[in-house]
Amino acid sequence: MRAMMCEKIGVDPVLRTVADPVAGPGEVVIDIYACGVNFADTLIIAGKYQHRPDLPFIPGFEIAGIVAEVGAGVDATLIGQRVMAMAAHGGFAEKMAHPADRIIPIPDGVAFADAAAFQITYGTSWFALKYRAAVRAGEVVLVHGAAGGVGVTAVECAKVLGAKVIATAGGAKKCDIARQHGADFVIDYKSENIAEAVKDICQRHGWPAGVDVVYDPVGGDVFDQSLRCVAPGARLLVIGFASGDIPRIPANILLVKNISVLGFYLGAYLAQNPEAARDGMADLVQNLAAGYITPSVSRKFDLADTPLAFAALRDRSATHKMVVLCRKDAD
């Protein structure tokens, strides 16, 4: 099979031909039609991700495809079913062996590319907002990076939960994306001071104390500005550091305003909370099937062009979600 192999830390993977995987006991082999592109892909290639596989390895976390083979102890009727799955790595390839009890059927009418764009970004936002921050209807949620892969999903998930959403994005085009996905108010951080703009919105619309929840995949100065516009008792979700700058958290401000800072890493959360993982993913798939959330794929790349997708992430030119089509007959 063809696969993108990472052979040296810090260097983008290259296209190689490698042996097909074989389904072991309790596993299936999936013909991969699409694999979602995530910021974490750039981290695992750089050796900066929480999980560091041995070299050489195939990156890629979220896949969608068709079950082609089953191992011992697995129901053979799974063969031919359209499924999606989240893996530790291995997605930028034509095939993958994966535990059978961790695949999810793709709802009818959902394309492979949309299924591959769904799991990590929506999973991150849904579990972070609903389970970690316990967002309630009527609360005000501030979403940073709202035109990016996870930011767009955070806007949609917060709206499904009944929240009011203030979104930040850079430039008119990205601000329009945030609006199109349901943001009630949008701030262009390239021309506006985030803290002052949020305070002004809150004052004008009856939330003088500030926002209740912050969803921050950016870090750096964005996190610092968030601290200046949150209500007492607010919850700040630390999702990632797309800016490259990990903020230092001033504990005195947390103390005075009774603020909670909540880290969220999807993979660990799902492993540590299996019941919530099962129930939450069921909720997400239902919302997907019903059209309440709509994966938005901005660009599709051929397997050999995977490094171009990583470049778009690194220079922050990417909007929405990007997907790699792993097979020549992929949609």
Give the structural class: alpha/beta
What portion of residues is helical?
25-40%
CATH-assigned fold name of the largest domain: Quinone Oxidoreductase, Chain A, domain 1
Strand-and-helix sequence, N→C?
A: EEEHEEEEHHEHEHEHEHEHEHHEHE
Give the overall pLDDT as a whole number.
93
User: At the first level of CATH, what is the class of the largest domain?
Assistant: Alpha Beta
Q: How many separate domains make up the residues?
A: 2
The CATH architecture of the largest domain is: Alpha-Beta Complex
The CATH superfamily of the largest domain is identified as Medium-chain alcohol dehydrogenases, catalytic domain
Residue ranges: pLDDT <50 for 5 or more in a row? Answer: none
DSSP strand content: 25-35%
Number of discrete helical segments: 11
Q: What would you note in describing this structure?
A:
By secondary structure, this protein is α/β, with parallel strands linked by helices. It folds into two domains: 2-118 and 296-325, Medium-chain alcohol dehydrogenases, catalytic domain (Quinone Oxidoreductase, Chain A, domain 1, Alpha-Beta Complex), CATH 3.90.180.10; 121-267, NAD(P)-binding Rossmann-like Domain (Rossmann fold). It contains eleven helices and 15 strands. The protein has helices at residues 39-46, 112-116, 119-132, 149-160, 172-180, 194-204, 221-227, 251-257, 266-272, 274-290, 306-314; strands at 2-5, 14-17, 27-36, 62-70, 82-86, 95-99, 103-105, 140-143, 164-169, 185-188, 211-216, 230-238, 260-263, 297-302, 321-325. The strands form three sheets. Strands 3, 4, 5, 6, 7, 14 and 15 form a seven-stranded mixed β-sheet that branches. α5 (172-180) links the parallel β9 and β10 (185-188). α3 (119-132) packs across α4 (149-160), α3 (119-132) packs across α10 (274-290) and α9 (266-272) crosses α10. The longest helix is centred in the last third of the chain and has 17 residues, at 274-290. The chain is globular, with a radius of gyration of 20 Å.
